[in-house]
Amino acid sequence: MSTTHTGGFKSSYAFDRYTNQNKHNKTLNDSNNSIHEESEKTKALFDAGKLEKGAVTGYSFDDIVQAPRSNKEPTTINYPPLNLKEPIPLRKSAWAEEDNADVEEELSQNIPIDSPHDLISWVNTVPKTLKSKVKPAEEFDESDEYDTDIDVEETFKDLLRKDQGTFDGTGANMYKAACEQSGEAPNSFFIRHITDRHLEIKHRYFSITSFNMLMLSLKNNTMVEELSLEGNCLNDDMCLAIGEMLSENCFLLRVDLSHNTICNEGMDHLSRALASHDNLRTLNLKANKISSRGTARLGAALSNNIGLQVLDLSENAICGEGFCSVFTGLTPNTALIHLDLSWNHVQTHIIAWKGLNKFLKANRTLEILNISRNGSMDYCPLNIYKTLKTQNILKMLDLSHNWITSDGCKKLALALMANECLEVLSLSHNPIGEDAITLMLKKICNNATFKVLLLSGIQLSSNMLSTISDFHEARSHIIVLYETNRCDWRWHRRLTEKISKFILDFGTTPMKLYFQKPCDFLPAEGLIKTSVTPDRHLESQSVLTRSTELNVNFSISQQESILLELGCSTENVTYMTDANNNPSTSENEISSDLPDIPNGWQSNCQNQFINKVKNITSAEMDCFLWHMMEYVTYMKNNIVLSKDQEKMFLDGHVLRLLTLKEIFSLQ
């Protein structure tokens, strides 16, 4: 049967029903003269021009008049009236839901039709304006295949329409349904961890379709606070999905997009989201392909953002103009605390360093600034030293690996003599002469706020080492870290003692710092300190599990001593023992050179500890001191450490050794 589409009105379904009944009755009764007479009348109407050929969608005129003749008496058939009270569904292959929504509403009236003539008359009386609203089938090509973004977006719109009245706080159901409709296999890891506060999806290398579905499902997620997408080869097209997700998800606080392939166009998408997302606290864009053009829009977004506290743009391709854009945007900013611009391409761009000077004069929030490894030479210190004299906001400044000479160091020394806020200055791996270091020590000795001077990677003479050692003895509130001989165990012992004292001055101990981080095997929800009734049992089990990562065999009495020292409960706890009821060892031996203590505290524990400390390099100690002061600044500003920062500091080798030293002294 030929089919002619002329507008696709809802009456096609009614006429299909009538015609099917008619054909069924023809097989029961050989005589169809009455039907033939009706067909002749219809043909007459068509010949007179009162009826268009094919006016009823789906059937041509010839199909109606092909009923056979018979001389038998026709059988009377009473057709039930057709009821069009409820809307009749359109054929999905020929109609677009959204385009014909208004037409469906108009045609869903109760129209009494008792015969095919009434049906035909009703179709012909439909207003022409209403027909024009309907999009014909010829405009739709079912063979067309649309690409990822449109298909996924339409899929989610359909699902949202179906699930009105329900709320899924994770987005998991939406994600599964979308994968089923699009034919993509769901990511099982994503589904398992979609309720975690920290969602870490690293090195997965998604396709654009699957990644867009992930981001769209996260739009309604209320569980995830930190999202890490490190090392997934994310490109600019994927940043569009990330930007749309950030614009709608107000529960996400920290986003890590480091080690991807994001370029300038991707930065445009992220900047638009950043301008409206004031709940985002941390954005990590380290190790991408962002240049100066990409930071231009970012600077404009930062000027209006009142929520972002940590921004990492290190290891990109930002030149002097890009630095100027960032500094210009941050000048009126009232939220940013930590800015990392290390490993970029500024070098001797004088305009960039002048822009930094203007920024430091005007900004009133930035406390941590890292501009190391930019090849600034003396241009940076010569442009900012005057501002540092009166600048009372910045607490930590990293100028390491910048080819700064003695002239630049002397200017910084003059600035530190008057500065009353800066606490940490890193000049490591710069060709600074000993005369400049001597001047620096003289200027900071009476500075009450200065705490840490990092000089690792600078070769010093024995006379200079003696001078710094004497300075340490006289100034207990300042740590000067320099390159030294590993065999000088006395220096390492004094340094660790001084660091422990520093930690005490901050109101905590190395043990409390190490054990405050929940172990990776227990949920963190029950360990929240702000909870009215924290789970004391869970807290104790977390401490005992973390103690096994020290790779030391603690007896049950020693484990109990650790719990009591930390103020944890010792009731109904399961102590860490192996199958032979001996103190357990960590399955993951992170530091295999640490001592084992199977039979209680040994008298030579301190000596063993000193032997291990001597193997710490100055670079490791440099990193630890910077992260320790960074941690203190974060805590004062109520900023949560990212998972990577926790690994570098709370899981670091130096803090483990300091924790063991404190545990050894409990006896």
Q: Name the shape in a single word.
A: flat
Uncertain residue segments:
1-15, 53-101, 107-113, 126-152, 161-165, 521-534, 583-603
Q: How far is the first residue's CA from the last residue's CA?
A: 97 Å
Q: Got a strand count?
A: 11
Mean pLDDT comes to 75
The percent range for strand residues is 5-15%
Q: Please summarize the sheet with the most strands.
A: 11 strands, parallel
Radius of gyration: 38 Å
Biggest sheet: strand arrangement: 1-2-3-4-5-6-7-8-9-10-11
Please, how many helices?
A: 27
SS content category: mainly alpha
Gist of the model:
The protein has 667 residues and is mainly α.
Q: SSE layout and pairings?
A:
Blueprint (H helix, E strand, L loop, with lengths): L10 H18 L4 H15 L13 H4 L36 H7 L8 H9 L3 H6 L14 H15 L9 H11 L5 H5 L5 E3 L7 H11 L7 E3 L7 H13 L5 E3 L7 H13 L5 E3 L7 H13 L5 E3 L7 H11 L7 E3 L9 H13 L5 E3 L8 H12 L5 E3 L7 H13 L5 E3 L7 H11 L7 E4 L6 H13 L4 E4 L6 H17 L4 H7 L19 H13 L7 H10 L39 H9 L4 H19 L6 H7 L3 H12 L3
Parallel strand pairs: 1-2, 2-3, 3-4, 4-5, 5-6, 6-7, 7-8, 8-9, 9-10, 10-11
Helix pairs in contact: 7-8, 7-10, 8-10, 10-11, 11-12, 12-13, 13-14, 14-15, 15-16, 16-17, 17-18, 21-27, 24-27
